[in-house]
Amino acid sequence: MTSIQSDARLQQVIGLLETVCGCSYVITGEEDLRAYGSDETQDLYFPFDILVKPADEKEIGELLRICNRYRIPVTPRGGGSGVTGGALPVQKGVVLSTERLNKIITINETDRYVIAECGVITQELCEAVEEKGLFFPVAPTSRAFSFVGGNVAENAGSMYSCKYGTTSRYVINLQVVLPNGEIFWTGANVEKNATGLDLTRLFVGSEGLLGVITKVVFRLLPKPRVSALMLTGFDDLAMACEAVIAIRRSGLSPAAAELIGHSALQLTRAYLKESFPLTADRIKAHLLIELNAADENRLAFETETVAQLLGEYTQDEIFLGSSSPEKERLWMIRRNIGNALKSENRLYRDIDVCIPLSFVYRYISGVEEICKREGVAVACFGHVLDGNLHTMLHWEKASFPGEDHFAAVLHEIYDFAISNGGVISGEHGIGYLQKEFMPLQFPASSLRLMKEIKTVFDPEGIMNPGKVL
Amino acid sequence: MTSIQSDARLQQVIGLLETVCGCSYVITGEEDLRAYGSDETQDLYFPFDILVKPADEKEIGELLRICNRYRIPVTPRGGGSGVTGGALPVQKGVVLSTERLNKIITINETDRYVIAECGVITQELCEAVEEKGLFFPVAPTSRAFSFVGGNVAENAGSMYSCKYGTTSRYVINLQVVLPNGEIFWTGANVEKNATGLDLTRLFVGSEGLLGVITKVVFRLLPKPRVSALMLTGFDDLAMACEAVIAIRRSGLSPAAAELIGHSALQLTRAYLKESFPLTADRIKAHLLIELNAADENRLAFETETVAQLLGEYTQDEIFLGSSSPEKERLWMIRRNIGNALKSENRLYRDIDVCIPLSFVYRYISGVEEICKREGVAVACFGHVLDGNLHTMLHWEKASFPGEDHFAAVLHEIYDFAISNGGVISGEHGIGYLQKEFMPLQFPASSLRLMKEIKTVFDPEGIMNPGKVL
Lengths: 469, 469
Known about the structure:
Helix content of chain A: 25-40%
Strand order of the largest sheet of chain A: 15-12-14-13-17-18-16
Structural class of chain A: alpha+beta
Number of strands of chain A: 18
Oligomer: homodimer
């Protein structure tokens, strides 16, 4: 894989791409490219050669064919919401922005699916289906700007994954474009499909390695009619974790269950400069439980059952939010952890392991020990019920001990998670940042198979080079 | 791909396999092989050379390596419950029975998964997890003898797939063995996993083409506490289909919804020789709706809502079964359709399309027209809510018009289903019987990719040759 090595070759390729997309959508001005050289991944920035904004899958097919012939790296880009560098043009070449493929094509209420172009914003899709009484439950935190195609490419999760799973569960069909320009649908718009190897799910989570996802078909659910949010605090992290296990073993299925560890709590309280319930120093953890149901009776029953269970593990008050403003207030701390970490000239690095629920307490305690020994601040919080915790290492910018030290700490934490049954990423993907850690999790056989599968789809290796494998 | 061409070569291979599995588990006597040359697929039978019954994945690895070196076809076999010939040794060689890998290894109640060897019988796994208050919702009709590994290989569905999806949704990790003898786990025992290409789901539904699945890890659900079954009849098939659509649009999620068309009803009534409610000639369809819930209140609400909706589409009585014997009686007709079709020197062929719900009425009417024109009897029934209908063409043995005529009718029905958004198989897989119809559903690009992916896993083409692709 090479980038565009000479000016003459660059001009030639630009000319060809312009015949496909039109001059206004083949962009090379340094200033215009700037925003597309970075995404939500730390402060990383990679300059590159050409930005293309094709109108549809046909144009994408033609421009991929050109790049394939000239062996030019192509980095597909959705909303740029990724945090592992999946959309960064690390080997220069072409960034293919899907922002013009932004139409919701069909919402089928009888067959209960939605067909959308890959560049539709998640939030818009959610709202459009909710207007029809339907529900797409996997909207990541970045829903206000993430694209549905990117969600599929990353197998994105959401706060609600503990009840509803990740994006993979909802994808029934994808329109994809291969580097050789072939355009086809991988599946069908039906609920069950036992025909051939599952190419649909091979594209889910493929992070742009195989081709470009141009249209998605998601199965939908009926919209839950009512929901409630509960918040309580614990003097002891172990008790918070035990409470979560008790809720799971009760047979209830909360829509969300978020744990906020002590340092995340303290950091965010300081950032918000406002008093919130249950944020005294003695409080070692918050637990937020969201319940939803098809009717008020069921919701009341579940709320009461959860309250009783929580009461066995904490003496603190249990706050219940039913109205939107009440819920907003209870979410306030959780929603602002990211802002707190980004403030005041701080640097942070996000670890997105998914581990077994039974290991959560030992994981958090172990990570805190590692970080204490290594002189790194750490804030743990996240989707506790499905074991997908976000572990944020953070520093004041001035005191960042350097990438090597960071990598060593990360390595130790990943080893600890993996040797206890965990994986490197629950929902953020591997992208550019986590690539070097894949051999910690996967045996050589798996990595070889993944590489060879990529080669089947992308023999010239132009698709998102430098990522995942 | 060749079979074992000479006696000397055969003896040599037998000797090698015996050093791996022991003499008692390498079987060549014609009588002992007989039962393994057929499965539940019509009356097909294929003789073959060697039956092996390895003890574990290590033995499987060693014997696959031998077969790979000698380029001997290997047909993996679970419970032999398949109906599309996936386990038939159509190119002779070795049948690898997984019947000795029959242990449930762990049921983890906190992390809510079960680890089982591939040869565990589905029903045994279901009962073992239910004893712990958990639920594995994808037990196919053949649950009494199908193996869990086979369910994964076929991406099996169940009566409950309209609410709970198919096997794919529950598989989080697989231990697999490649033809080169490599043994590894494809995933991890966690709820969310966004790491690398999804090899786990590539093995789900792979029908033995890629390697042997030796251990499975299924995520589990809390067990629903209560359920009820409703049965009613309709004078008009169109009204039955409208009723199903109304139930879906109500936002309720029945656990099962089975439609029985007029001829299936008449055939089974005659077979059972007993009087059942709503089987008068004027009744054109039965609808069975099973509801389940976490508590009685919710169940009562759903039952009432469904009864009201049904009442808008039929004047017939709505039977409600709550106790086991009541439910058994309501299921009686549905459970005996297969027996009725197999009786009295009849031949039948099973079509397993999955189509959009909105197309069900037009599909059944269209198929009835095709069959009438072609002089073939047809019985339609099945999982109507998820569009996975079983369409049984049947004949008295003496009057079977021959395979060519059958294939022509099948071709026309598949064309009709596919051109309206359907797929060839919702839950039975492609196997040996449906292979020739794959090009009707898939574009050349998809078929080429599937073949090349198979070659990545199985370069010598020894794994289940003659199937799917």
